[in-house]
Every structure is written in C-alpha cells, then in structure tokens.
Write a structure and sequence with these properties.
This protein is an alpha/beta fold. Helix content is about 40%, strand content about 20%. It folds into two domains: about 120 residues, Response regulator (Rossmann fold), CATH 3.40.50.2300; about 100 residues, Arc Repressor Mutant, subunit A. The protein contains eight helices and eleven strands. Helix 2 packs parallel to helix 3 and helix 6 crosses helix 8.
C-alpha cells in the first residue's frame, strides 16, 4: 500500500522537486500552494502525512496546522527556511511531529517522512488493546477512547503528542519518567538528547492542565531525573 503525502509549499520549484523525488520513492503525492488550498484538499482526501511550509500566502503554516490539528492527529513534518529555536518550539508546540530546515537533502526528507509514518503506524497498532475508558486524576478526566480531556467539566484541547504524554503519566501515577523514556514511549524512536522537543511539549501541556504552570500540581519535575504525575 502506497502512503499518501500532502505537500503544502508555495515555492513551485521546491514543491515539484520534493514531489518528484517522493513519487520515485513510492509515495502518492498531492500538492497545495497556500494554506487555504491545503485545507480544502485535506478535508476532501485522506493523507498519511503532511509536509508543511511555514511561510505561505493566504493562510500561513502555523494557522494551517492549527486547523488540521483540531480535526486530526495525522503526522506533520514542517520544512522551513525559518531555523530559529523559537520557530521550532512553536511548531512542535502546535502539534508538528518533526521539523526540517531548508536547505535539506531529498534523502533526509524521505527518511524523516518514513520514520514519522512508521511511528504513527506503530502507535496505532500497539493501542488496539482494550484500555480503561476513563481515567480521573484530581480535577482532570481523561477519556482514553475518545481522546478527550476535561478539567472541572471544561474540555481541554490537547495535541496528539500532549494527549499521549498525559495518558502515559495518568496510567502510571507517581512513576518517574526520564526524558529518554518519554521520547521512546511517545515518539517511538531513539532519543538523541534533543531536550527542546520534550521541554516544549511539557510546557505546553502544563499551560493547559495546571492552574499555575509555574507551580504545577499534577506534573512534577524531578531536576536532573525527569517528570512524574503526582497523585496523593
């Protein structure tokens, strides 16, 4: 079965270059040249992964990703000339699965796409085991089956990775997880010490579930060790 890729890139030459390479690599590729066109194509077709540029007309990459993330956890790979840590942090925080900076090699982007799809497929296949439908931690209610989280009966919008992290902690209360363990469980890949990815997701998760993110009551930091969900 050939995986379907949506490339959202306003530079026609880059779009065509990536498209042609991925087609030769066995992918089925659809292109869009601005955010509005991308949303229309996304809503009318099923894709296994989205390659997304940040700087686009009509609707930029960040806004496009927000809309997609409200509807789906499809893997998203950002490719952008914006290479600052801030841009990477924002992109990952909004729900991107990976980030590649321009210029890049075709071999690298193909490898990252395959890795992201492989991780998503593994996660899907390994979570078919029946699980408790609802977990309650303090004022939080985590509905595993529906991928919904609420606090004091108010729904909290989490990205796919944020939900997976909270689910991991809630199923293992008071267990300490190192950053390497979190990356291995959630990203299904080997950890190479990129703390920024973990830090961004933990900060964004705390901002959504904690009353005071700077003084968290749920997810505690054990300095030099890792994190745990504290349940008394």
């Amino acid at each position: 079965m050939h995986n379907k890729i949506l490339i959202i890139e306003d530079d026609i030459s880059i779009s065509e270059m990536v498209k042609n390479y991925l087609i030769k690599d066995g992918f089925i590729v659809t292109t869009a040249f601005d955010g509005e066109e991308a949303i229309v194509k996304y809503l009318n077709h099923d894709f296994d992964l989205i390659v997304l540029d940040l700087m686009m007309p009509k609707l930029d990459g960040m806004e496009t990703m927000k809309i997609i993330r409200e509807k789906s956890s499809v893997p998203i790979l950002i490719m952008s000339a914006k290479d600052s840590d801030v841009d990477k942090a924002i992109g990952l925080g909004l729900g991107a699965d990976d980030y590649i900076s321009k210029p890049f090699s075709m071999i690298e982007i193909s490898a990252r796409i395959k890795a992201a799809i492989r991780r998503a497929t593994k996660y899907s296949n390994t979570h078919k085991i029946e699980e408790p439908p609802v977990i309650k931690v303090g004022n939080l209610t985590i509905n595993i089956g529906n991928f919904l989280v609420s606090k004091n009966n108010q729904t909290i919008q989490l990205t796919s990775k944020e939900f997976q992290i909270l689910k991991l902690f809630s199923k293992n209360p008071n267990r300490v997880f190192t950053k390497a363990q979190i990356y291995s469980f959630i990203w299904k890949d080997e950890y190479f010490g990129d703390e920024n990815v973990i830090n961004v997701h933990m900060r964004r998760l705390r901002e959504k579930i904690e009353d005071d993110p700077s003084n968290p009551q749920y997810i505690k930091t054990l300095w030099g060790i890792g994190y745990k969900l504290e349940v008394n």
